[in-house]
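Dear support,

We are seeing what looks like truncated structure output for some complexes. This example has two components. We would appreciate it if you could run it in full and send us the complete token output so we can diff it against ours.
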Amino acid sequence: MSEKEKTILVDENSTCFPSGAMPHYDIKHEEVSAQPERILVLGAGCPKCRALEQTVIKSLDEMNETLAVGHVTDYAEMAKYGVMSTPALVIDGKVVSAGRVLNQKDVVRLLKENL
Amino acid sequence: MKAIFDFIQNQILGMRWLDTLIGNLLGATGLDLGNRWVGSLRFFLFDTIKILILLCVLIFLISYIQSFFPPERAKRTLSRVRGVWANVGAALLGTVTPFCSCSSIPLFIGFTSAGLPIGVTFSFLISSPMVDLGSLLVITGIFGAKIAVLYVICGLIIAVLGGLLIEKLHMERYLEDVIVTTRLAEVAQQKLTAHERLRFAAEAMTDTFKKVFPYVLAGVAIGAVIHNWIPESWVVAVLGSKNPFGVVLATLIGTPMYADIFGTIPVAEALFAKGARLGSVVAFMMSVTTLSLPSMMMLRRAIKPKLLALFITICVVGIIAIGYLFNALQGVI
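Here is the complete output from our reference environment:
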């Protein structure tokens, strides 16, 4: 599997554990960018992971940043970051938070510190 | 000493004062407390407020304690222990490590890459949802400390024995490839400050509150119906001394359901008050919290069907055994 394929962007309407049926992620290439995203949310698509992703997107809006947010759902890829609890937030390859749904204030702070 | 203990159990954890207060308030509005509708209302108000207060205070305290035990710590600690003690350690750490079933696969990968035997990982995975600090405190408030402690001990025993059995049967071959082939990178852990721990606890409290609130309302509503409308004879016939299979029935009904201890307790409490046997009630609470369809589906991504079936069987058989044990001990404890 190439690096490109491993960063999977999940559409927002995908079904999510545990509210719906088992999530089933097809590898999609619709939004694979040439450059890997600098900001990644790691998580298998549970409600918490989506909540974190939304907060990150809102925080970037607030900061007038136009960076894309990648969502890593592949466990082997997550393991490379040493993450044992999801959702995790990775900025430029560094895990800045794991196992927490951060609030917007924290995300903005972490983005400012690490970008 | 006993007086202090009873006070904590009845008034602080059990909140009898709140029931009296609600009773007095309803009485003061001129409502007839003997009326069944008023009885349902009283049960609903008392239980909702009680559980929500317990939930907030307990989740806050528990999350603060849990912030000292991230899964990475469990992994490090357990990789230094061998044999049965590793299973015991895993079962104990399962009770204090914050863990949501969404993270079961990264956790599994982490444990396996650290060289932990499969049985140790399973001791953790069984104990983590089955016994936690929350259930210990909530059950103390409703059924008393002896039952709560026995509940925890039994849960830990199942976790240890279940893990050992999976180890003995060499179930490693039923792990999914992603677990076996993936190595978890070692990353330096950040140390949390006391302030960050408090923030973490507050976040966990609000998160859990939002997540659990509908389950509590549903649980209390069902509890209120059982409490005031379902004839005692029905409950006794199905889950009481009349039915020797009450425990099995309660376990099988509880297994696919998804709720946590806070949503389960009002139903359990009402069934118990209506003459369900203790073992049936305990088996119901344990099966609801330990196993659920969503968590089984999550686990299926880490382990193959045979191992998943074994895991479910161990939990179900263990819970049924605990149910019968509690039935046998009812009246003694």
